[in-house]
Amino acid sequence: MKRILFVTSECVPFVKTGGLADVCGSLPKAFDKKDYDIRVILPNYHAIKEDWRNKMETVYYFQMDNRIYVGIKTLTLDGIQYYFVDNEQYFGGLVPYYDMFQDLERFAYFSKAVLSALPLIGFRPDIIHCHDWQSSLVPVYLNTVFQGDPFFRGIRTVFTIHNIRFQGTWDVGHIQWVSALPWECFQPGLLVSPYQDTSIPRENWNCSMMRGGLVYSDYITTVSNSYAYEIQTPQFGDGLDDILKWRHERLWGIVNGIDTVEWNPYTDKKIAKNYNTRSHKSGKKANKVALQKELGLPENPEVLTLGIISRLTDQKGLDLVNIIMDELCGSREVNLIVLGTGARNYEDMFRYFEGKYPDKVRAKIMYSDDLAHKIYAGVDALLVPSAFEPCGLTQMIALRYGTVPIVHAIGGLKDTVEPYNEIEETGTGFSFNEYSAWALMDRINHACWLYYDRPSSWNALVERGMKKDWSWKNSSEIYKDLYSRM
Ligand code: GLC
Fold first, then answer.
1. Distance 63 CA to ligand 1 centre (A)
2. Are strands 304-309 and 334-339 parallel, antiparallel or unpaired?
3. In the prediction, which pLDDT does 190 show?
4. Are 295 and 370 in contact (CB under 8 A)?
């Protein structure tokens, strides 16, 4: 029996802002309970719904370092035991994340609290699997502050990068203050870049918590093969390419899966009409009309309908969308439905285009799981023009729902969407290599042509996509292989 602890800042169904929550919610379920005892620990945010919070039981509480309160709560769901680190002062707000300055202290506390709690709650994992910068100090604390304690001897660590853009970066002075890590951690090559200019005072050196996770963990993974290569280059490595290149033999790219029970057009209760590979033509039309009706768009099952379901941030290629909007809506027979929240400029941009093209564009600036299901089922194609994309889950969900992805061939998008080849009649979507508005528009034009002028080829494309397997079956085998080496 292998005992594994996932440490994460978000996890479905409790709290979600992005794909990290989906992965931490679905991956543990892909392991056989006879051989793996996988548990998950996350903060007990006030943002977690009352219903869940009422179901939690207190396991233990104590004062960490004789001064800071740590409560550990737990609940079991679908056979997985979840732990929640409780502290009103740090996690009592209405949202999971504040600004970076405050989050550094909150997640340094979280990481240390996780390790401090383990001997007290009766769970000694063989492997601690950390996700993203919020838990990246766990391997650092384990190999420094907790090293002398026999309880922790032999515990191995994996660190998974879901997004290298967010690292928990500040100056050494502040990060040392909030983490209380020994000063020797803050040397160039450890939590500090080996290229740091050391002629300036040490307090002012740049420090990255994620770098600590990469240096101190036994293995590093990221969420697709292509991204694993990309982050070893200065263009995508966000200042960490040196350490990733240096440790490349310990860096594995393992593509994410999705929860194929939650995301199944044949059984999905949130959509107007269920369908499968044989009934997708009528199924998608019915869902499209239901969606148009709900959103107040003219009801027309024939119009090519595009969707964007995304956090509205710079990562997601919305600058390209901005450039093509007038050409797209002014001269093409298309609808565009957008769902998401994020940066103010992108929210306003989509609101503006909804005002300008009221019969074609809908901007739902909100987070809604129900509406996401309806959009996946009701649109014909999904735009994912991300500038960079560690994995991306929406394109996989789209494929399963017979919705053709139009993507920038980068990171996980490149690994999961096979470009349409008109001569061989192969592929599952449209993809462009050059990150430009022109290249995106060109792929949309191609999609328009295929949809309106070659419907049988379009339908064959849809069916090839729907038949792909996005469950965790393959990738969980790779994680098992990884765990077995540790
Ligand atoms: C982050 C990445 C996304 C990935 C997800 C889950 O949100 O931006 O590409 O799919 O993490 O790993």
1. 35
2. parallel
3. 98
4. no
**pTM greater than the 0.85 cutoff:** yes
pLDDT (0 to 100) of residue 307 = 98
Q: In the numeric block, which tokens belong to residue 168?
A: 């928990």
395-450 pLDDT tens trace = 999 999 999 999 999 999 999 999 999 999 999 999 999 999 999 999 999 999 99
H helix runs in 163-275, sequence order: 172-179, 209-216, 225-230, 234-237, 241-246
Q: Give the pair of three-digit tokens for residue 287.
A: 């869902």
Please tell me what DSSP assigns to residue 388.
Answer: -
Strand partners of residue 252: 221
Cα separation, 181 vs 187, whole angstroms = 12
The H or E element containing residue 199 is none
* Confidence band, pLDDT 50/70/90 cuts, at residue 273: very high
Q: In terms of DSSP bridges, do strands 80-86 and 127-131 run parallel, antiparallel, or are they unpaired?
A: unpaired
- In angstroms, the CA 61 to CA 84 distance is 11
Task: Tell me which of 166, 223, 384 to substitute to probe ligand 1's pocket, judged by most ligand atoms within 8 Å of the beta carbon.
Answer: 223
Q: What angle do CA 82, 262, 397 make, to 5 degrees?
A: 115
- Residue closest via CA to ligand 1's atom 10 equals 392
Say how many Å lie between the CA of residue 163 and the centre of ligand 1.
6
Tokens standing for residue 103: 């989050």
In the chain, helix, strand, coil percent, each to 5? 45, 20, 35
Q: Which residues line ligand 1 (CB under 6 A)?
A: 18-20, 23, 162-163, 223, 256, 389-393, 412
CA 436 to ligand 1 center in whole angstroms: 22
Pocket test for ligand 1, best of 162, 394, 417 (most atoms within 8 A of CB): 162
How far is the centre of ligand 1, averaged over its atoms, from the C-alpha of 145 (Å)?
31
Q: What is the spatial distance between Cα 243 and Cα 241, in angstroms, rounded to a whole number?
A: 6
Contact 91, 46 (CB under 8 A): yes
Distance (Å) from CA 353 to ligand 1 centroid? 27
Task: Return the ligand 1 atom nearest residue 18 CA.
Answer: 7
CA 321, distance to chain mean position in Å, is: 21
419 secondary structure, DSSP code = B
| 80-86 vs 36-43, strand pairing mode | parallel
How many CA within 13 A on the CB side of residue 18?
Answer: 22
Burial class for 484, CB neighbours closer than 10 Å (0-12, 13-18, 19+): exposed
Q: Are 398 and 405 in contact (CB under 8 A)?
A: yes
> Measured between alpha carbons, how far is 455 from 109 in angstroms, rounded to an integer?
56
Chain segment 275-317, per-residue pLDDT in tens: 999 999 999 999 999 999 999 999 999 999 999 999 999 999 9
The token pair that represents 325 in the structure block: 């909007």
